[in-house]
Amino acid sequence: MQLDQAGYRTWDGRRRSPWWSCLAIVRVGLNLIFRRWVFWILIGLGLLNFLFHFAFIYLKATLVIQNENVAKFLDNYKVTGTGQAYADFMFAQASICALLLAFAGSTLIGSDYRQGGMIFYLSRRIGRWQYIVGKLLTIAAVVTIVTTLPALILYIEYGTLSNSIHYFLDNPRVLAGILGYGAVLAIVQSLMIFAIAAWVPRTVPLVMTWLGLFVLLKGLADAMRAIDGNRYWLLLGFWDDMHRLGRWCFGSLDEKRIPSAGYCLAVLSALCVVSLILIVRRVRAVEVVS
Amino acid sequence: MNSLIPQFVASRHLFALTMRRQLLSRQTLACVALSALCALIVLAWSRHSDPTSKKLAEQVLVPTFVAFLMPIFAICYGASGIGGEREDQTLIYLLIAPLPRSLTYFVKGAASLSLVGGWTAGTLFVLCKLAGKPGDELFRLFLPAALLGALAYGCLFLLLGAVFRHGTIISLVYWFFLEVLFGNLPGIIKRVSVAFYVRCMVHDAAGDMNLGPPGRVAREMFLPVSGSTAMITLCTATICLLIAGMVLFDLREYRDAS
Amino acid sequence: MSASLNAVDGPLVEFRSVTKWYGAVIGVNDVSVALQSGITGLLGPNGAGKTTLIKLLTGQLRPSLGEIRVCGQPAHSARARRHIGYCPDADAFYEEMSGRQFVRTMARLHGMSSAEVQDRTEQALSEVGMSDRADRTLRGCSKGMRQRIKLAQALVHHPDVLIVDEPLNGIDPVGRRELMDLFRRCAARGQAVLISSHILDEMDELADRIVFMGRGRILAVGSLPDIRAMFAGQPLQIRIACRQQRELATQLIGWEHVARIELAGTNELLLQVIRPEEFFARLAVLVVETSFDITHMESTDATTEATFQYVMSAAARF
Predict the structure, then answer these.
(1) Check: complex ipTM more than 0.90
(2) Are the beta carbons of C81 and B8 separated by less than 8 Å?
(3) What pLDDT tens digit does each residue of chain B (258 aa) get?
(4) CB C86 to CB B3 under 8 A?
(5) DSSP code string of chain A
(6) Which chains touch B (3 or more CB pairs under 8 A)?
(7) Of the CATH numbers 3.60.21.10, 3.90.76.10, 3.40.50.10860, 3.40.50.300, which one belongs to the domain with range C4-225?
(8) Does B15 contact A at CB distance below 8 Å?
(9) Which residue of C25, C109, C114 to mutate against B (max B Cβ within 10 Å)?
């Protein structure tokens, strides 16, 4: 039978740039994660901290009217409203996010290597860079959902429950800080988890490597600093470097204190570059015969 | 009697197979790397001007070894005992072997727990040796608590790996929320965490050193139990978790096995 | 063959009113079937319940209702698993091992002594034609080699019941022939071989008996001719090669058994016949009386595939 008789015809639509496929990869990746109940447990646990802050802002807004002294008392603890408070909130959320990423890394990246899923991506009309960017965006989206989005909601809640719009006008740095810290967390964590999951795709070693990097390097940094008091050793703790950079975004970092935001930025940039090199080397190792 | 000898032979082989596969895996490399990092921390710490046993315990062994390395070893070999077979889809070969399922679980558990115990004791020994004189004293005090804690963790994570498809992640969630968060909350809620009993045993054994959580508030919130109570609790938890795992593994239907 | 086989009276495998639910979904529904030595093909569309049936038989699942016995033992017991060799569909192994190590490992898990392990492993590898290639790491083996190793591990303990899920996947035509011969040898030794497959052509020449499944039920059990005979009222497709093509067609068109006639090429007739036995008797008389030169005659839908279609369409009417 002739091909045209079978009802087939050439597609005469216009093909979009392959970069659009990154969005499809993000959509598929998020679907993959959202349909696992483990993800919802982790999100639920992450929400506990968010709900605490959410309720606290509401209570504070109510107590300000009922009793000014209680409001002043609460302000002493700087639980919310200030740049430092948002930085601390995002730092706590980022800890939960680290667990979530251990899961996401295994599901989104590790399974592509373990079960050969990568071939399905690379056999399409996309290149390795589109695959890499798509996956990075997916992980970044997960980080944003757990850290930046809740912080933005708290920021809006705090502003709208205050007596005027001045909170938003007086604290533009808070908004910039949320977005900046969110970007730091999303970029650094997505690159790192991608690099680790690509080289250590099995769940158990992946989890160990990922957590070891954050927990033990911080311990090592503290121990090394304790020897001679050299605070530059603290740069070894990547988790704290991200927090310092985040606090700088909020304007709450003491600039005179070593290590400064610039050093943290340099270390994290180097880490990102190394991660990217590892990712590219690993993705290149998969050969697609066209 | 006829079937007992083949079952014993098969069990012995399953034990050796599990040990070999777990030991020659990437997670062992990760364990070596993490232990090396921890050893670096101890080495750095031992260059302190005033290294004492109390400081070594409070600043390094409890936060780094008891709170992190010990559960990580247990997750590494415990959760992957059955969970690794599920992830690799090789569990089917164990399910069709002519061994009672509870025995399969027990043998795999025994192999995994041996590795968890071995790594825990070995790493503790190396860390204490690296720390010098203060370490020698602490090794004796920490060893029973660390071993019992590691076995309790191992049994728990083995069970989670057998029951849940994402056993490793569930183990992590348990460790982070029940051990790290609940373990530091006020009141008796911390008694659900394994690390609490390990710390109680260590504090009790090192009575002269006056070990305890750093800071007055933390000490007052700690509400410790006696060393013997902690030991009995850990032993009971280990045995109960192992038996629960054997029963659940026997009853569970693994639809994803093949 | 294991000695146990001789000790078993009655069927090697017996499903007695077995039902399995997955929550609200029913996997198999009131299945009663017995397997004897010989090759049994398990056929059915996707979702028919074949996998559930195999998992129940291998003790991976327990029936919600009913009972399964393997050589007289409950299927989920360890004693029953001694009689079962299972070659799963999933392409999963202890990848770091060589083929020989893998088969040895499986033999050891059956509690054999070292000498016995050695002998049985070589025997199993030789049976699947892998003796000289089994030292390669499984990670580096082709799909066909992996399939053979998987089969060797199922054979290594000389099971009474061999269950193979899609055994011919990834095997080249020569290899298929070899494996089919192997299954026949197993059947000749008195083993019950249950083969779940989608390759219906091979079932035609391989299976002594077919179990058709659909929607969780057993739709038909028996040899192909027996099952085909159940559909006697169903039109049968017949191809006849005859030099006097048009003359024969003229004769046949008036018969009440012949529902449809089609001329194919210059000397072939394609017929659709109802009540085939009566048709064949009358055709024999006609050929003798009129000297039609019939060079070839075959039924084109007595194959497994055609019977499968009949069974499925009949099942759909219920």
Answers:
(1) no
(2) no
(3) 567 888 899 999 999 999 999 998 888 998 999 999 889 888 888 887 677 888 888 888 888 888 888 999 999 899 989 988 988 889 999 999 999 999 999 999 999 999 999 999 999 999 999 988 888 888 988 999 999 999 999 999 999 999 988 888 888 888 877 887 777 777 888 888 898 899 899 888 887 777 777 667 667 777 888 889 999 999 999 999 999 999 999 999 887 666
(4) no
(5) --TTTTT-----SPPPPGGGHHHHHHHHHHHHHHT-HHHHHHHHHHHHHHHHHHHHHHHHHHHHHH-HHHHHHHHHTT-SSSHHHHHHHHHHHHHHHHHHHHHHIIIIIIHHHHS-THHHHHTSS--HHHHHHHHHHHHHHHHHHHTHHHHHHHHHHHHHTSSSTHHHHH-HHHHHHHHHHHHHHHHHHHHHHHHHHHHS-SHHHHHHHHHHHHHHHHHHHHHHHHHH--GGGGGG-HHHHHHHHHHHHHT-S-TTSSSPHHHHHHHHHHHHHHHHHHHHHHHHTS----
(6) A, C
(7) 3.40.50.300
(8) no
(9) C109
